[in-house]
Design goal:
Number of strands: 8
Strand order of the largest sheet: 2-1-3-4
CATH class of the largest domain: Alpha Beta
Distance between the termini: 31 Å
Number of domains: 2
Radius of gyration: 20 Å
Number of helices: 12
């Protein structure tokens, strides 16, 4: 179940009127060769930063692992920051819906919607920031967009995106290697946050769809669905449990406690960057944790 975080309560229409009044959207995407890029979360901000280096400023609205991007609400100052941006990069697919609400009333702002540029259309899961191929596509679109508005640094943007893409290709190979080393591996998840990482690794997620859908909607799963997941854990019919540490609640705790009870590995995932990590370091951590969990020896028979 998602944890709800306190946020400033404002009327969106009022905020948008205040933020857009006096703002002109006829400006070029980059003024004086320096773009001001706003990202919905630090995940996409890190992808942008890998492309722009010191040729543009990048600010992420949601940073750190304290706030849940799903339940976040932008403050008036943050809405103004979005509407003043040279380029806005966000997840899309209703994940960061609060960005959609702002952009709906400011259609002239250049944007990159990660879900829309994903190689898989339509994306089967909204958490496209765990799809390395989508991150690569976003980097390429950022390089293209800023290269057109800042021709002086176009070659740098392109080269940086290429280098970032090569790092992602290496991580993709590492993901595939996990599945190859552990054929038949499976998990249950408190939420389908790591859907793409598991899919790319060839690891089956046995979480009942009804359970996953309920948690995604912020509802309690049906008792039968919860019992089915706990049964998979108690009987060690899965290789690990994937827990989203940014969403608490009794259901998440029940699954974590059940895994601990039977000495089943727990893989922790987040929806934003842990402190001190960039996108590549974060995804490498996920790969390493998945591999370590599946490499762990089974507990002694009870």
């Amino acid at each position: 179940m998602r944890a709800l975080f306190a946020a400033p309560v404002v009327t969106l229409a009022t905020v948008l009127v205040a933020a857009t009044a006096g703002c002109s959207h006829d400006r070029p995407a980059a003024e004086h060769g320096t773009a001001d890029v706003v990202a919905s979360t630090d995940v996409w901000g890190s992808v942008v930063a890998a492309v722009v280096k010191d040729h543009a400023t990048v600010h992420s609205i949601v940073s750190g692992t304290v706030e849940d991007p799903h339940s976040f609400e932008a403050s008036p100052a943050q809405v103004a920051e979005i509407t003043d941006a040279s380029l806005v990069v966000y997840n899309g697919d209703h994940y960061d819906h609060w960005i959609d609400d702002v952009l709906k009333n400011a259609p002239d702002i250049p944007t990159i919607d990660a879900a829309s540029v994903s190689p898989t259309q339509p994306p089967p899961n909204e958490h496209v920031f765990y799809d390395l191929a989508t991150a690569k596509a976003v980097a390429e679109h950022v390089a293209d967009a800023l290269g057109k508005s800042d021709a002086q640094h176009a070659a740098d943007y392109s080269a940086n995106a290429d280098a970032f893409g090569e790092e992602l290709d290496t991580l993709m190979l590492a993901q595939h290697a996990i599945g190859e080393a552990h054929p038949g591996a499976s998990v249950v998840s408190t939420e389908p946050v790591a859907y793409y990482a598991l899919r790319n690794a060839g690891i089956q997620d046995k979480t009942p769809p009804a359970f996953a859908n309920a948690v995604e909607e912020g509802d309690d799963p049906a008792p039968a669905d919860l019992a089915a997941v706990l049964d998979l854990i108690d009987k060690r019919q899965v290789s690990a449990v994937v827990v989203n540490s940014q969403s608490g609640g009794p259901v998440t705790q029940q699954l974590a406690d059940a895994a601990k009870r039977v000495v089943l590995p727990v893989i922790t995932v987040t929806e934003t960057l842990p402190d001190g990590m960039d996108y590549l370091q974060w995804q490498r951590k996920t790969v390493d944790e998945m591999a370590a969990a599946l490499d762990s020896p089974p507990p002694p028979s009870r």
